[in-house]
Amino acid sequence: xxxxxxxxxxxxxxxxxxxxxxxxxxxxxxxxxxxxxxxxxxxxxxxxxxxxxxxxxxxxxxxxxxxxxxxxxxxxxxxxxxxxxxxxxxxxxxxxxxxxxxxxxxxxxxxxxxxxxxxxxxxxxxxxxxxxxxxxxxx
Length: 139
Prior knowledge:
Blueprint: H1 2-31, H2 39-61, H3 73-101, H4 106-126
Helix pairs in contact: 1-2, 1-4, 2-3, 3-4
């Protein structure tokens, strides 16, 4: 269990770095009207879905998820808020990736830029950062 928690917590930085890189590449490719796809879009997609799988395992195994104490800020965050907002963000990444595969030229990169940027904002809000007093550390 401890290994999964550390993997999930550490992988967040990989996901954030890949999303930021994908957004930068998408903006650059959009502005230069490049053709084709960038592998960084795929890597960000795979990393977020890997994070989702680890998160789902933790959701069903973690003592932090508790529907009996839903009125408590700590349990409410991990039981409802964190999971729900992350699912929305991963859905945005998935939709952005699928829609971009069907487009050509600058529209492909603009689509990735918009969807991945919206997902990044949601992810940044939903991460249990240490300064939010939710019992989580940096790793």
